[in-house]
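[job 4417] fold queue: 2 targets
>>> target A
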Amino acid sequence: MKKMVLMLKHISIEGGGTIEDYLKSNRWEIEKRELQDGNGNSVPSKLDYDAIIILGGPMNVYEEDKYPFLKDEDRLIKEAIKKEIPTLGICLGAQLIAKAAGAKVTKNKVKEIGWYKVSLTDAGKKDPVFKGLGESFYVFQWHGDTFGIPENGKLLATAELCTNQALRVGKNIYGLQFHMEVTDKMIYEWIDTYDEELQSLRGVIDVEKIRRDTKSKFSSYKDRALTFCKNFFER
C-alpha cells in the first residue's frame, strides 16, 4: 500500500524540489495543496496522512489577516503535533511549526540569501534525520525572519547570522530554516522573480556570487538533501 504525504505549497515557484523528486521515486502518493494560487485548494480539515510537508513562501506567519490559510495551517500543525504525524517544515513552514508549538517568530538581524554554513548542535548530531550529513555543511538560505525554540522543542542546527536553523518538536516534527529542497533551477528562478528584493540589498547580497556558489555547491547539496529525505521518510 502506497504511503500518502500532504504537501502544502504557498506560492508556485517554491515547490517540493528534491524532496518531491525523492517521494515520487520512492512511490509515495503526494496530495498537493496550492494555497495561494486561487484554484480552490485549501488546508484539509482531516489529517489522514503518513507525513506532512510544509514549504516556504514570501509571506510571514503573522500575516494571517492577509493570508487566512495561515490560520488553518496553525490548526493543522497543532493537530499533527498532538497526533505525532511526521512533519517537515521548510523556511516559512519551519516558522509556522515553531509558532504553532508556542514560540515567537521575529525579524532576524539580517536577511540570509545565498549559501551559508550551518553547524549541528549536540542534539542535532544525535538526531537520526541528520545522519550522514556531516557536523557542518553549506545550505541555501532565503529568509528575513527567524523562529524561537518552543518549550517542547530542541535546537538541532545553528549558524553565525541566524542562530536557530533547525528544530525538532516532540519526536518527529521538524523545521528547517534553510531550503533543503531547492534545485539549481529553482535558485535561478528565485533570483529572477525576486529581483526587486535583491536590488534593495545591493552591496549586501552578491547575486553573481550566489550563481557561482550554486554551480560549485549544488551537486553535493543534492546528494545531502536526498540523504536527509531517506533519513526522514524511512525512519
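>>> target B
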Amino acid sequence: MISRSKDYLSPEMSLQHLLLFASFLLGAVIGSFLNVVIFRLPDPASSIAFPPSHCPRCSTPIRWYDNIPMLSYLLLRGRCRACRQPISPRYPLVELCMACLSMALYARFGPGLAFVCYFPFLAALLAIIFIDIDHQIIPDVISLPGIVLGFAGSFFNPLVSWQQSALGILIGGGLLYTIALAYMLLTRREGMGGGDIKLLAMIGAFLGWQSLLYVIFASSLVGSVVGIAVMRIQGKGSRTRIPFGPFLALAAMSYLFFQQDIMALWQAYLAGVGRG
C-alpha cells in the first residue's frame, strides 16, 4: 500500500500550485506582448499599440482565439489561418521563455514585492536579448526607463537597498564606459556600444553594485567562447560582430536566481586562496 502524506492535498499546497500556474499564465500573456515589442520597437515607424496583432505575411488581423499564447500556435500547426503561411516558432518560444521565467521567479521568491520588482526586469531583459540578436541595438526606451524603475523599486525591494541600486547605476554605467573607452583608444575601433553601458547600469539598478563583478565576468567568459566559435564558423576573424547585450542579460538572470550559490562559491574560492 502506498502511504500518502497528510498534507498531500492540503489547501495550502493546492493554493501554491494554483498560484504557480497563474504565474506561468501571466508570463505567457506578457510574452505575447513582448513579441510585439521585439518585432515593432526597433522600427521608428511602427507602434507597439496600433494596429492590433496581425499576420506578418498577409496582414490579416488575428482573432482572439488564434492569439492564445503557445496554444494557438500548436492548434494552427504553426500556420496563419488565413494565408496558411508558416509562422515563426520564435513567437511561442518567447511566450514560453517568459512563462518559465515568471514561474521560476514565483518559485524562487514567492508572492510579494520581490516578484513585483523583478517581473518587469526579466521581461525587459528577454526583449533586449532578441532585439539585440536581430538588430544589434539595445533601445534606450527600454534601458533608460529600466534604470529609473530599478532605482525607484529599490525603496520597496527587500533584496536591494537604494544605496546599492544607486551605486549599481554609477559603477555599472561607469565601468563599461571605461572599458569601452580604453578599447577604442587601444584599437581605434568601437568594441562596445552605448546600449551595453546603459544595460549594465539598468542591471546595477535592479541587482545592486555587488552583482556587477559576476555579471561582467560571466557575460565576458560566455561571450568570448561563443564569439570564438562563431568566428571559426563564419571565417570572418575579427570582423565578426557579436552582440554583447544577450550575454549581459543572461548573466543578470542567472545572478538573480542563483545569487546565494554564486556568493557561496566566491567565498569558498576566497577561503581557498587564503589558505594557499
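[job 4417] complete. Note on B: Confidence is low (pLDDT under 50) at residues 1-7.
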